[in-house]
Design a protein that fits this description.
This protein has about 190 residues and is an alpha+beta fold. The chain has two domains: about 5-100, Alpha-Beta Plaits; about 110-185, Alpha-Beta Plaits, CATH 3.30.70.1150. About 25% of the residues lie in helices and about 40% in strands. The protein starts with a strand and ends in a 5-residue tail after the last strand. The model is unreliable at about 1-15 (pLDDT under 50). It catalyses: 2 pyruvate + H(+) = (2S)-2-acetolactate + CO2.
């Protein structure tokens, strides 16, 4: 968990501005929310965030228990410790929410994301893009005479680093799935 520092005098109006004036540290948290798989649940969860001015950095959702009709929503958000606690408490009060886990504080976890990156280029730029893709273990999933589409799975920071290196080589489009995360070790 790496703290981020807020600029003084920010004119941004959101729930983050409710922070303790003595504390300027924002924390990134990954939340796993187990919900009933029924219409409108995702909208209610997202509505909680938007209605209170909380930001969602990443959001993934899929049914994980077909027989029990449950889905797992993985949310990455940033806030002060007080804001994170408010988010968890408010999520827990939504009726179709069964469990809320803060993977950031509950112990070690694994986070991965899938990204597709389209890089257009010719000559040396193509050669360099392929060389960097090999270093980052990105797979070529489509190729034309003018472009490549790379597939990469890894921590969000690894995908960010790869994208930063591809920009000067012709990165023209990127699609990311958002973070999928699980706690390490045995079942809770």
């Amino acid at each position: 968990m790496s703290p981020l520092h807020i600029q003084q005098g920010s004119s941004k109006h959101s729930a983050y501005d409710l922070r303790d004036p003595n504390s300027e540290v924002l924390e990134r948290h990954t939340l796993a929310v187990i919900v009933a798989n029924e219409p409108g649940v995702l909208a209610r969860v997202i509505g909680l965030f938007s209605g209170r001015g909380y930001n969602i950095e990443s959001l993934t959702v899929a049914e994980t228990d077909h027989k029990g009709h449950r889905s797992r929503i993985t949310i990455v958000t940033v806030g002060t410790p007080q804001v994170i606690e408010q988010i968890k408490a408010q999520l827990g009060r939504i009726v179709p929410v069964h469990e809320v886990h803060d993977l950031t504080v509950e112990g070690a976890s694994v986070e991965r994301e899938l990204a597709l990156l389209k890089v257009e280029g010719k000559g040396d730029a193509r050669i360099e893009a392929l060389r960097l893709a090999e270093i980052f273990r990105a797979n070529v999933v489509d190729s034309t005479l003018e472009s490549f589409v790379f597939e990469m799975t890894g921590a969000p920071s690894k995908i960010d680093a790869f994208a930063d290196l591809m920009r000067p080589l012709g990165l023209c489009e990127i699609a990311r799935t958002g973070v999928a995360a699980l706690a390490r070790g045995g079942a809770a």
